[in-house]
Amino acid sequence: MYRSHTCGELNAASIGQEVKLSGWVQKIRDKGFMVWVDLRDRYGITQLIFDEERSSKELMEKAQKLGREFVIQVSGKVIERESKNTNIPTGEIEVLVDEVNILNTSLTPPFTIENETDGGEDLRMKYRYLDIRRNPVKNKLKFRHKVGMEVRNYLSNQDFVEVETPYLIKSTPEGARDFVVPSRMNEGQFYALPQSPQTFKQLLMVGGMDKYFQIVKCFRDEDLRADRQPEFTQIDCEMAFVEQEDILNIFEGLTRHLLKEINGVDVAEFPRMTYSEAMKKYGNDKPDIRFGMEFAELNDLAKNKGFNVFDQQELVVGIAVPGAASFTRKEIDKLISWVKRPQVGANGLVWAKYNEDGTLKSSVDKFYSEEDLKTWAEATSAKPGDLILLMAGDANKTRTQLSALRMHLGNELGLRKADEFAPLWVIDFPLLEWDEETNRFHAMHHPFTSPKKEDFALLETKPGEVRANAYDLVLNGNEIGGGSIRIHDKETQEKMFDYLGFTPEEAKAQFGFLMDAFQYGAPPHGGIAFGFDRLVAILGGQESIRDFIAFPKNNNGRDVMIDAPAKLDEAQLKELHLQVNYLEETSKNSQGK
Ligand code: ASP
């Protein structure tokens, strides 16, 4: 038996007991005549004591030779500690050791195994197994487990069945590139890893499973923008015989359950906003509604007043920044450079200060009277003390740019509080989205999403205006879930593939199995998927998902610990019937590496 107790378990009530503990050496304090060792495991830290007067010479020597991160087993007696530590549960006792057994030695770790470590991100990732010994990472993994358990509890109680779907499949269109896997047994053919279990969960509905969920890995070969992972986890769900309303209710319930059980927070009914309203009010389909600064469109109030810069633009739009009338010229200039950075790409900002004394002063006083500025203040709901900021340009672009500024200011002014939760349903997404590059429409969600019945006729005339039965769940400015009511008949699905530019042959080759299934009594169905990593991070009050993932990849999609991806050896390639013949440009890259 390695241990009778964990290192987090013993306390004053255990005094007098003979115990056995196993764990890692966190710290050694050697006073010569006395040695203290902090012994650590997942559950906590227990202080061990070796004392010249009470321990043998041999034992003292053994204790003095211990090193950091050695794995040891000790037997001894729980005694009362002289100087107590009230900060930890085991702080009133220590174990007077009578036997120590070194189970394994350790090299000196490359960074300190402390809450605040001296190890940088790269080093921590390379030795992730050491990083996981640290409380901040360990606790995040435990937290993730807890969220996962609550998800399973809730859905299971609602009669959902967790079903596993395969990873070696054919392409699923979620809008990213596929990771592919060559087949040894089927020469020249490849599996694709699922971007999501989308088609399988729909087939489970045809199969009569009625309510399905799965906490499942998804794989998307995208360029990794900040805080994305090429493999990530979804809470994937599907239900039969449901309308949008049913789905929103069930998953609002799930989210509320999690906020209650995990964060102890009760939230009121989730507000709902249409996609077009979200774009107009926040320039964003995932607005953070923890703070205001809603957009006000100012075309009527700011155009045709002699200020040319505005007159030619499609949209003039403004926000009121609370309490920012006191910003200095320098601070405002900083904001202007911020929006001019290529990442935002705006031309500049026009500002108007609504001073505490009720007067108004702007960067365009030449063109606008104080009366004019007052109308801006009204439209943006600015109060004395606020700063009004205006942008102008192409409507969509300008909204996006102002949205970036709004979020930036939200962060700067501390309006995005981690312990505040503001969920929101965004509904009525467009069915299709114009893609400038390929010059055609793409499914905004995915090709299995059903258009709204009342918009169906528009498909022929104004496809861009057709709304879908599609919805996103937004939490604190993050899209944490998204889904739709699906098409469940062959004809509509065929038509949809046609609109999306698939030839009937292509559609059949890629999704024939689904359309076949629709001919055998497919029930009406719909579903949703939550991004589990992000959800866990937000509930944990953090921005970054990385520490909630045991073994994450870096921004180049590499696992620096196991050093993957890696080349295959010749024998393996041969078995897979492959010959690697790098294209010229890529071979340059791989040589440079
Ligand atoms: N498969 C979709 C996604 O991954 C979610 C859904 O429509 O249920 O975003």
Q: How is the secondary structure organized here?
A:
Layout: E1 18-30, E2 34-41, E3 44-51, H1 57-64, E4 71-80, E5 93-104, H2 121-126, H3 128-131, H4 135-157, E6 161-162, E7 180-182, E8 190-192, H5 198-206, E9 211-219, E10 231-240, H6 244-263, E11 272-274, H7 275-282, E12 296-297, H8 299-302, H9 308-311, E13 315-321, H10 329-340, E14 350-354, E15 360-362, H11 370-380, E16 387-393, H12 395-412, E17 423-427, E18 432-435, E19 440-443, H13 458-461, E20 470-475, E21 478-485, H14 490-499, H15 504-518, E22 525-531, H16 532-539, H17 570-575, H18 584-592
Parallel strand pairs: 3-5, 6-9, 11-17
Antiparallel strand pairs: 1-2, 1-4, 2-3, 4-5, 7-8, 9-10, 10-22, 12-13, 13-16, 14-15, 14-16, 17-20, 18-19, 20-21, 21-22
Helix pairs in contact: 4-6, 4-16, 14-15
The chain binds aspartic acid.
Residues 174, 196, 198, 482-484, 527-529 line the site of aspartic acid (ASP).
What does this structure look like?
This protein is α+β, with helices and mostly antiparallel strands. It folds into 3 domains: 12-104, Nucleic acid-binding proteins (OB fold (Dihydrolipoamide Acetyltransferase, E2P), Beta Barrel), CATH 2.40.50; 138-272 and 423-548, 2-Layer Sandwich (BirA Bifunctional Protein, domain 2); 291-413, 2-Layer Sandwich (Gyrase A, domain 2), CATH 3.30.1360. It is built from 18 helices and 22 strands. It has helices at 57-64, 121-126, 128-131, 135-157, 198-206, 244-263, 275-282, 299-302, 308-311, 329-340, 370-380, 395-412, 458-461, 490-499, 504-518, 532-539, 570-575, 584-592, and strands at residues 18-30, 34-41, 44-51, 71-80, 93-104, 161-162, 180-182, 190-192, 211-219, 231-240, 272-274, 296-297, 315-321, 350-354, 360-362, 387-393, 423-427, 432-435, 440-443, 470-475, 478-485, 525-531. It has an 8-stranded mixed β-sheet with strand order 6-9-10-22-21-20-17-11, with helices on both faces. Strands 1-2-3-5-4 form a 5-stranded mixed barrel. A 5-stranded antiparallel β-sheet has the order 12-13-16-14-15. It binds aspartic acid (ASP).
